Amino acid sequence: MPYDIRITKQAKKDIDTLTPKLRAKLRDILVHVIAVDPSEGKKLLGDLAGSYSYRLTYKDRIVYSVDERTNTVYIERARTHYGD
Q1: Integer angstrom CA distances of residue 37 from 3, 30, 31, 51, 66
Q2: Looking at residue 57, which CATH number applies to its domain?
Q3: I want to staple 11 with a disulfide (CB 3.0 to 4.6 A). Which of 1, 4, 18, 75 is the partner?
Q4: 6, 73 in Cβ contact below 8 A?
Q5: Is the CB of residue 16 less than 8 Å from the CB of residue 84?
Q6: Does the predicted model carry a pTM greater than 0.85?
Q7: Nearest to residue 61, comparing CAs of 44, 73, 37, 46?
Q8: Would you call 32 exposed, middle or buried from its count of C-beta atoms within 10 A (0-12, 13-18, 19+)?
């Protein structure tokens, strides 16, 4: 059963800055990869321990957490992690 996808306010702001092409790519990744198997992403360490990262572009990452109890994925960020 696919996971539900929820987008945080911060991720919504990030998504609003993406180009239409990147938004479409993000949608495809969310529906066909992350909602199907959230463990496809890379487990993060340090301050973001418990979250996952999945590459959107060379610079941009999708950062998300998973609530296994409710089968929900929370998209936390959808932008660069290089400070640009």
Answers
A1: 8, 10, 10, 14, 10
A2: 3.30.2310.20
A3: 75
A4: yes
A5: no
A6: yes
A7: 44
A8: exposed
Structure tokens at 26: 């993000």
d(CA 72, CA 70): 5
3-state secondary structure of 70: coil
For residue 56, CA distances in Å to 20, 68, 70, 71 come to: 13, 23, 25, 22
Separate counts of helices (H) and strands (E) for the chain: 2, 5
Tokens 């990452």 belong to residue: 61
- pLDDT(18) > 80: yes
Structure tokens given for 12: 């919504």
Query: Is residue 16 within 8 Å of residue 79, measured between CB atoms?
Result: no
- The total number of structural domains in the chain stands at 1
How does pLDDT run across 54-75, given as a tens digit for each residue?
999 988 999 999 999 999 999 9
> Apex CA 37: angle with CA 35 and CA 40, to 5°?
115
